[in-house]
Amino acid sequence: MKAGEKIFIDDDWIRVVKVTGPHNFVLENEDGSGYTINGVDDQPQEVLPEVFVSAGKIRSEAPGRIARIFIEAPREMQILRQGPYETLCFLESAVAVIEALVNIDGVPTTEQKEEALDVVSELRHEIRNLTRGG
C-alpha cells in the first residue's frame, strides 16, 4: 500500500501515513492514533479492537515505496481497500433505493417491480462478491 491509502475494517479505517523505509511504515486510525511499524520482526500492533497489524516486505518491482501490510482480525470482520469499500457502499445504497421504489404502492407496475427486483438480486450478488460471502 502507498501513503494515503486506506483499509476499511468493517466501517472503521486505518490509513498509511507514510512509508519510511524497507519494512517500515506509519499508520493512523480514524480517531487519529498513530502506529509506527519498524520491520518484519516488530510485534503486531493493535490498531483497532481485535485488529492487529504487522509489516511485510516492500515490493521491489513496484515504483516508489509500497508497504505490504499484514492484518490479523477475526474472520467475521470485513477487510477491504478503499476502492472496493466505496463500491460496496454504493451498491448497498443502490439496493436500498431500488427496494424503496419496489415498495411504493401504485407507482411502479408489476413488470417494473419485477425488473427492479432482478436488479436488486444482481446487486446483492455483487455485494457478496466484494465481501466474504462471495
How would you characterize this protein structure?
The protein is 31% helix and 31% strand. It has 134 residues and is α+β, with helices and mostly antiparallel strands. The protein folds into two domains: 72 residues, no CATH class; 48 residues. The strands form two sheets. Strands 4-3-2-1-8 form a five-stranded antiparallel sheet. A three-stranded antiparallel sheet has the order 5-6-7, with no helix packed on it. The two termini are 24 Å apart. 10% of the residues are buried. The model has no long low-confidence stretch (mean pLDDT 84).
Q: Keywords, please?
A:
134 residues, alpha+beta, 2 domains
Task: Average the pLDDT over all residues and give the rounded result.
Answer: 84
Radius of gyration: 20 Å
Report low-confidence residues grouped into runs of 5 or more.
none
Indicate how many domains the architecture comprises.
2
Could you outline the blueprint of secondary structure elements for this entry?
Blueprint: E1 6-9, E2 12-21, E3 24-29, E4 34-38, E5 45-48, E6 51-55, E7 69-72, E8 79-81, H1 82-102, H2 110-130
Antiparallel strand pairs: 1-2, 1-8, 2-3, 3-4, 5-6, 6-7
Put the structure in a nutshell.
By secondary structure, the chain is an alpha+beta fold.
